[in-house]
Amino acid sequence: MHTIDLAYVGRGLHEELAAYIADQENLYADEGVHVSLRDGCAWDEERLRRCVTIGLGRALLSRLTDGIPWVGLNVNTHRPLFWFLARSGLTSLSDLAGRRLAVHAPHTAPGCFTRIVLRRAGLDPDHDVKTVVRPPGDYGMDLRRLRAGEIDAALVGSTMAPEAVAAEHGWNVPAWVGDHFRIPTVGLAVDPTYTDPDGPAVQAVLRAHRRALKVIHDDPDTTVRHMQTFLGGHTADEVRAHYETFIAPHFTIDGRVDLPTGDAAIIAVAAELGVPASVTAAEFYGRATTAS
User: Fold this and answer.
1) Which pLDDT value is given to residue 291?
2) What is the mean pLDDT of residues 102-128?
C-alpha cells in the first residue's frame, strides 16, 4: 500500500469535507493508499510544500508571492465557503461602512478574498471599515464578541452554518463570499519539486477524492451524516438545509476546474496582493481539466 501526507490549512467543511468522506467511507483504502492527514494551518510554506495540500487558495497566493511552483490537481468548488455574519440591522455589505469587522489577515487566502469582495461592494477595506484581524480558528470568539457588542460583523467559515447561527441570535448574513467572488478552491495541490503529480500515491488520493465528490452529489444522507461531525451545534434539519444550499449545488461532480473562472480569479487576487499575475489558470489548475 502506498503512503502519503495530506495537509489541510483551514478548518471546516470548506477545507475538509471531501477528505473526511474519503477517509470515513474507506475510499483511500479502496484505492490502495494510506493517508496521514496533517494539520498544516500553522506551517510555513517550506514545510507545507513537502506534502499534498488541500488549500488551493493558499497555494495560489504562495505561487504568486513566493514563486513556489504549486500545481492544482482537482477542485472541489468555485465558491469559497465564507460568510459575513453581522449584528441586527446590518443587512448588506454597504451597511458595514464604519463598522468593526473581524477578518483574516490580508495576506491569507480568506483575507484576500474578503478584501476583493469589500472593494466590489464599494468599500475600501483599509479605510471604510474598522478591521479587527484575528487568526483562523473555529470563529467561536467572534460569536462571543458579536454578542458582547465588541464587533459588528465577522467573516466566518464553514465550522458553522451561518444562516442558522444568525436565525438563533437575531443576526444577519449580509453576504456569502461565494456569491461575490468565484475562485477554484479547495481540492488537492502539490509542489512538483518534492511530489510527483503522477506518482501512484497522489493518483490514488485523487481517485478517492473524486469518489468522495460523487458521494456528496449522489448520497445526501451519508453526506449530511458526515457534515454533522463538523456542525455538532446544529440540528439535523439545519445541517441538511446547509448542504442543500451551499454544498450540493456548488461542489464539483468530478474535481474539474472552470479555467475562465480561474483566470479571472488569478487576476483579481494578484491585483489585490499588488503582484504580477505571473501564472495562468491553465498553468496552475491545468491538471484539473480532466478526470478519470
Assistant:
1) 56
2) 97
Write out the three cell numbers for 281.
489558470
Q: What is the CATH classification number for the domain harbouring 229?
A: 3.40.190.10
Looking at the structure of the chain, the number of domains it has is 2
| pLDDT per residue as tens digits for the range 61-90 | 999 999 999 999 999 999 999 999 999 999
Please give the residue range of the domain that contains residue 101.
Answer: 83-180
Task: Return the residue matching grid coordinates 472552470.
Answer: 258
Residues 186 and 119 in one domain: no
- Give this prediction's pTM: 0.96
Please give the helix or strand (H or E) that residue 2 lies within, else none.
strand 2-8
What stretch of H or E contains 230? helix 220-230
Other beta carbons within 10 Å of 4: 19
* 46's grid cell: 517550506
Does residue 292 carry a pLDDT above 90? no
Spatial neighbors of 2 by CB under 8 A, at least 6 apart, are: 32, 33, 34, 200, 201, 204
- Asked whether residue 241 falls in the same domain as residue 153, the answer is no
Q: Is the pLDDT of residue 242 over 80?
A: yes
Q: Give the type of residue at 88.
A: S
3-state SS, residue 177: helix
Are 189 and 225 found together in one domain? yes
**For 158-216, how does the pLDDT look when each residue is reduced to its tens digit (9 = 90+)?**
999 999 999 999 999 999 999 999 999 999 999 999 999 999 999 999 999 999 999 99
